[in-house]
Backbone:
């Protein structure tokens, strides 16, 4: 059963480790300890600071950092795109952003996700409308382990303009992460199709379902 990040009494902070060989693998003792806490790539954290400077100005990052622990600040001040960081650090950052910028409004996480969609699709530029949405979403699933060292992802085409992304086997879950994922997929569909799109999380690991299942229609 996955653990909700918010339920962890003593959230782990192992610090960043360069590369997937940095302590991850079968040699890591895997209990509910810091040694096997799930991790994400620095790129996801960097996208939060890009959002801050793009939308809230250059002073916003300093305000957010002030609200975090010294240990978190140490990690966030020297972010490396390709290094691994604790998933729990991303969640603490996202919740701090929501509290300071949106009075804790849970819909804020979707806004964060929508903004980061721009980063993963911006290389498509003016050709975005020509890229197959199915191909892009299939790549999102294939690349899941490039950005997260936990869980499994799969994509299934369900119609000409619809598909399903499923994420499962998460050791920790957080509604905030599912919210930013929904926003991210909405952002991707908007950028790729420039039309009306619908994203529904039909099942969710936070509700003890076997997977977070996103139904997408465009
Ligand atoms: Zn979910």
Residues:
């Amino acid at each position: 059963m996955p653990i909700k990040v918010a339920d962890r009494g003593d959230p782990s902070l192992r610090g960043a480790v360069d590369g997937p060989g940095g302590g991850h693998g079968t040699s890591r003792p895997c209990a509910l300890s810091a040694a096997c806490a799930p991790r994400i790539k620095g790129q996801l954290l960097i996208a939060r600071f890009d959002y801050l400077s793009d939308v809230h100005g250059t002073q916003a990052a300093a305000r957010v950092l002030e609200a975090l622990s010294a240990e978190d600040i140490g990690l966030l001040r020297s972010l490396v795109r390709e290094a691994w960081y604790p998933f729990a650090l991303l969640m603490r950052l996202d919740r701090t952003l929501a509290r300071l910028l949106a009075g804790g409004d849970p819909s804020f996480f979707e806004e964060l996700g929508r903004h980061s969609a721009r980063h993963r699709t911006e290389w498509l530029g003016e050709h975005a409308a020509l890229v197959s949405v199915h191909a892009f979403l299939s790549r999102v699933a294939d690349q899941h382990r490039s950005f997260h060292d936990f869980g499994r992802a799969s994509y299934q085409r369900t119609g000409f303009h619809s598909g399903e992304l499923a994420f499962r086997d998460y050791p920790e879950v957080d509604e905030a992460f599912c919210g930013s994922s929904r926003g991210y997929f909405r952002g991707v569909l908007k950028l790729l199709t420039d039309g009306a799109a619908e994203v529904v999380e039909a099942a969710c690991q936070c509700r003890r379902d076997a997977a977070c299942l996103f139904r997408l229609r465009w």
